Amino acid sequence: MLPRKILIVGGDVEAWITAAHLHGVLNRDGRRFADIAVLDLPEERTTGVGESTLASFNHALAVMGIDQIEFMRRTDGTFKQSTKFTNWLHADGHSFHHPFGLERTAPVDTVGRRWLRSNRSVPFAETLSVQPGLCEMSLAPQMSGPWDFGPPLPYGYHLDETKFAHHLREASVARGVARYADSLASVDRAVNGNIAAINTASGKRLEAELFVDCSGAQALLSRREMGVGWQDCSHWMLCDRVLTMQVPYEHFYPGYVRPFSTAMALSAGWVLEIPLRDRRSLRYVHCGDFLDRRAAEAELRAFEGRHAASLGVDTSDFKAGRRENAWVGNCIAIGDSAAMTDPLVSTHLYMCSLAAAMLAEHFPFGDEMQPLAFRFNRIMANRFHEILDFINLHYCLTQRTDSDFWIEVQKPDRVTDRLKAKLDFWRHKPPSRSDFEDQFFAGQAVQPLPASGTQGDYRSPIDTAGLWGYEDYEVLLYGMDFLREECDEQFGPDRPDPQILGNVIQRINVARQKLTPHDLWLRQAFDMPDYPAAKQVVD
Amino acid sequence: MAAKRIVIVGGGSSGWMSAAYLDAVLNAEGREPVGIGLIESPDVPRIGVGEATIPSINHILAAIGIDEIEFLRRVDGTYKQAIKYVNWLDGKGEGYYHAFGRYRSSPVDTSTLDWLTSDRSIPFSETISAQPAICESCLAPKTIDLRDIGARFTYAYHMNALKFADYLCEIATGRGVRHYRDHVTDIEMAGNGDIAAMKTRSGERIEADLFVDCTGFAALLIEKKLGVGWIDCSQWQLCNRALTIQIPYERSYPGYVRPNTLATAVSAGWIWEIPLQNRRAWGYVHGKEFISEDDAEKELRAFIGPISDDIPARLVPYKVGYRAKSWVNNCIAIGLSAGFIEPLESTGLYLSDLAAVMLSEHFPYGGDRSRMAFRFNRIMANRFYEILDFINLHYCLTRRNDTEFWREAQRPERINDRLKAKLEFWRVKPPSLADFEDQWFPGQPDRPLPDGGLPGDHRSAIDTAGIFTLSSYEAILYGMDFLRDECDQWFGRNRPPSRVPLNIARRLQMATNGLPTHEEWLRQVVNMPEYQVSG
């Protein structure tokens, strides 16, 4: 019967994204399909990690009914237009951008093939996007006055995750989501194996029809209670440890706020740098087998510079993988309890929003849940494997040989079979739209998804370009100098300069007059203090 | 190694569309030029495969560089904004629209749920699109001076497919495609199983790296020469021939030109009605096991009325099915040689169009040809089965039991397994966008594609909504009153009246005030003659 009772277990951003999504979809326009409650588990940390989002996050905000500006205000938010990858191909400062905005020619997209026939003197992404240029000029994707810079520039955000959780909690509770600040003592099961109720430490018994496990890596319900297995993927995502360092602007302000994230490859992983309004948040994501903790910390400090000596560094470990079936019985795992990946492509918040949106889309109006779980699990598995491939792609095309880590990641054994088949195919034909219709290429092994306790869909995961289409693959592949030899062979040594799309040139030329510098925009909109620029000393 | 010469065998609309599209895409932008030739036999009459299209035609027109107005002038074209289905559910005069345009609310689309939680007092299609009402009023999708009213309406065209072929021929040959008016007498093979050359009656030997088989059901290259098998799909499509009649407006003009195709269910199939600038065409698509040719003709003439007396009808038999592999070695089948599905959703030209686009995307520039064939075959198979499901859907939800044909069409064995799994799933949860990401539902059997005697990708066909998305499924399902009982259970019997969202009401009002009738538009913009209203 409607409304159905849903209990979300877990108190951080994953739980509150789920609550806000479910409320935003199911209890819309005066309907009330769900009674939503959150068992808000005690928080582990107080300083939020800097996180970043994809451009699709704006849609998620709209669904959750969260205003963009208010969101930025509350989360120390800044704009993100791109991720810049440095030293991934060679350790010589080589870099490329993966911007959100990628323009194309119509009715036939010839951008990729045209670049391949050129001499590559302009990086691929810069021929079809204005955003690498805007990023290097540190410009906001917004103007101070009314917008007259052509089509809107897509952007995501950098944000403080903990502050975001608080903002969503406040909004959700105000809209009628019940909150129990308590912890989990025990779980009551029904005869059919479903979860019937949760007993809290303070003695409350919380009944519901659906239970969402947002308890993080510990997976209190999904793993501990329901015993759903975990598919380890660390073979293809070697990184398993993160060192976090916050660099407050009061301590050190570089003189700008980058409107993009940076991913700087180091000896055994890479540093994610996220600029917020009061600090930069750094994460050295690396593989413990190749670098001990102490050495990693030293490397991170050296990377940041002398001023980092006095800053604290937190350590956390993670294991890349996924829950074999995120939805089992009436228990749905969302967030780290369902999947964990290398944070390279900023998909953590995306996966939470997607799972919440899919739960809302597969909401049981009637009594049958098994068919809904079947589809939910398939979609989440497809997307996880899509992310796995795409992260894997960043590493496996490296030509670095300066450390064991980089030698290891390019071994064929470290490339997923599906990605191998893709790369193999693309050596014969550059990527194009139809490759993503239902990715399966000659020679690709059929690799069924693992079976868990439940009956399910064990076909191989299928990449339907839910997140990244051929356009993004092109940016990554050509950023990593893919098909160089093949093109030399096919088109010869004398090739013309790359063509840059006309409106990219036009916009770059007027960008400085039109767009506001990112830091200035943040100061104007949010009273970000005018920090004095420090002088950087790197050891 | 790189393919440099293509020869297309067959000069129908598939042949010329392939020629013009491949030339436009492959020989653009300083690419290494590819020589394209087309052999058209003077002995073989062209078949016009359907005269209605779907909106994807606009892509191919744009890519070839064809101006819309010029196109309409050359092919006697008219606009098509929807298909109206009459008598499919109960056979009592009821109807519903499958319109090309669709409104959705944002950021959360509740347009379908709004209708499902209502009492269904307004047909679904009218609550999600202004086009059904625009079609009822016979309005054009744009103004005389080619402005849009609000956002552009999505549309396709009705046209004379033979004239379209002529027009494409003129364009393609004008750009350097070589036209051989000659009859293929022999196909010469190379040692490796490839086709080496076409030998013609006039004694020519025409070599190429790739041969495109556009020879229709004859399938001279792919079947007669290479022996690739045909997968029969008649189990899921009871119709196997069409009886057609065309009536010029000089004989009878109704006083309007519908901007939509009409598909009316009758005793053993359905009748299309397609208006052009100079005539209307009717076709009775039926199963010969259910009605004789004579009876079908009587029924068709009764349907059209006395205006059809003494105008001859033409019988076009066809087979429903699909080429086990449409790209084998250096031969690519495009058009009827690759597969056919009844024209209920006007997908004939679309499949040729898609094949041409896919061939250009997978053109073997030096790469390993078999890898290109592997993907090409997978994509074409996926799409064929997607269309098959969707056509199947139109029939299987009928409640008619007035004839053997309609009783047969709803038997479980006439519904393919994948569609069955979809319908069953949608009785648990109304269809939504995520269902179309990679359609696969509980209970669906894993049915490998046939191998056609060749190595390949034998997974089941996967529906990725390449053409028929959620919107199309919703139009048919709810047009056929799907989920009536389930909604009673989920949302109770006392539900508020259906309503037309403000956006659609507003759009409709703007359209009614601002748009000319379709007929007037055609007269003023493409010089359709003025006809005396009669019959």
Task: Walk me through the structure.
- The complex is a heterodimer of chains A (539) and B (535).
- Chain A contains 17 helices and 22 strands.
- With 539 residues, chain A is α+β, with helices and mostly antiparallel strands.
- Chain B is α+β, with helices and mostly antiparallel strands and 535 residues long.
- Chain B is 33% helix and 18% strand.
- In chain B, strands 5-4-14-15-16-13-17 form a seven-stranded mixed beta sheet. Chain B has a six-stranded mixed beta sheet with strand order 7-2-1-11-20-19. In chain B, strands 8-9-10 form a three-stranded antiparallel beta sheet, with no helix packed on it.
- Classes of the chains: A alpha+beta (539), B alpha+beta (535).
- Chains A and B meet through helix 2 and helix 11 of A and helix 2, helix 11 and helix 15 of B.
Gist of the model:
The complex is a heterodimer of chains A (539) and B (535). With 539 residues, chain A is an alpha+beta fold.
Uncertain spans of chain A, ≥5 residues at pLDDT below 50? none
- Strand count of chain B: 21
Largest sheet of chain B: 7 strands, mixed
Integer average pLDDT of chain B: 94
The two chains with the largest interface, and their residue counts, are: A-B, 52 and 53 residues
Tell me the layout of helices and strands.
The complex is a heterodimer of chains A (539) and B (535).
Chain A: E1 4-9, H1 13-26, E2 34-40, E3 50-52, H2 57-64, H3 68-74, E4 78-80, E5 82-86, E6 95-99, H4 111-116, H5 124-128, H6 131-136, E7 156-160, H7 161-174, E8 178-181, E9 184-189, E10 195-200, E11 205-207, E12 210-213, H8 220-225, E13 230-232, E14 241-248, E15 261-265, E16 269-275, E17 279-286, H9 293-304, E18 313-317, E19 321-323, E20 327-328, E21 331-333, E22 339-340, H10 348-361, H11 370-396, H12 404-409, H13 417-426, H14 470-479, H15 484-491, H16 502-514, H17 518-526
Chain B: E1 5-9, H1 13-26, E2 35-40, H2 57-64, H3 68-74, E3 78-80, E4 82-86, E5 95-99, H4 111-116, H5 124-128, H6 131-136, E6 156-158, H7 161-174, E7 178-181, E8 184-189, E9 195-200, E10 205-207, E11 210-213, H8 220-225, E12 230-232, E13 241-248, E14 261-266, E15 269-275, E16 279-286, H9 293-304, E17 314-317, E18 321-323, E19 327-328, E20 331-333, E21 339-340, H10 348-361, H11 369-396, H12 404-409, H13 417-426, H14 470-479, H15 484-491, H16 502-514, H17 518-526
Helix pairs in contact in B: 1-7, 1-10, 10-11
